[in-house]
Amino acid sequence: MKKLIAALLLVCLAASAFAQSGQAGSIAGMIKDDLFENEARIRAESKNLDQSQKFMLYGEYKKDQWVPFLVNFLVGAGIGSFIQGDKTGGTVALVGDLAGLGSIVIGAASYASASSVDPYTSSGLGLMTVGYITLFGTRIYELVRPFTYTAKYNSTLKTALNYFDSVSLAPTIENGIAGLTVGYTVRLD
After folding, report:
1. Which pTM was predicted?
2. 3-state SS assignment for residue 64
3. Could you tell me how far CA 179 lies from the centroid of its own chain?
């Protein structure tokens, strides 16, 4: 009888572990699909995960800003933002770069054609200036955007997973004995 109860308990524990693993896989699929769109569903389903599963999901899907920053810095055109999965930031940067380059090219062509007739013309210089200002502004946007997007994405991921990793150690003295106390922040919804 004891062996039967032990076997039944083992089967129940194994089934529970596989069910949680399947649920983590489902949440991982929702994160891959679109974190921002599926945030509410992820938050609801992640309440059944234990802290180690939340830690693993957060570690696997959190974003890093340095590669997109370097690609945006070196290449431009929002390619780093597209690599990061930031379609909005990549589109804004790409359109800004194209508009700036287009303004410079059209302004330079206008200036070249007008200067052949009148050597003292300023036709096209204003459009070239607008192009350079647009390129400069877009480049600043491309350098800042990976950091703001990463912060928003990782914060949303933590919130959706109900994962809070704020653990702290504090020195304590009890009954004349020095030691360390572990403090953990728990959010109650």
Report:
1. 0.70
2. coil
3. 38
| Distance of alpha carbon 32 from alpha carbon 67, whole angstroms | 19
> CA–CA separation, 75 vs 82, rounded Å?
12
Helix, strand, coil % over all residues of the chain, rounded to 5: 70, 10, 20
123: left (phi over 0), alpha (psi -120 to 50) or beta: beta
| pLDDT: which is higher, 70 or 49 | 70
Structural tokens at position 85: 């999965």
Pairing mode of beta strands 167-174, 177-184: antiparallel
Q: Give 107-133 pLDDT, tens digit per residue.
A: 999 988 887 777 777 888 999 999 999
Within 10 angstroms of residue 42's Cβ, the number of other Cβ atoms is 22
CA dist 50 and 162 (Å) reads: 10
Give the separation between CA 14 and CA 54, rounded to whole angstroms: 19
Q: Are 55 and 176 in contact (CB under 8 A)?
A: no
d(CA 44, CA 162): 9
What is the DSSP code (8-state) at residue 123? T
Tokens of 170: 């504090």
Closest CA to 134 of 166, 165, 92: 92
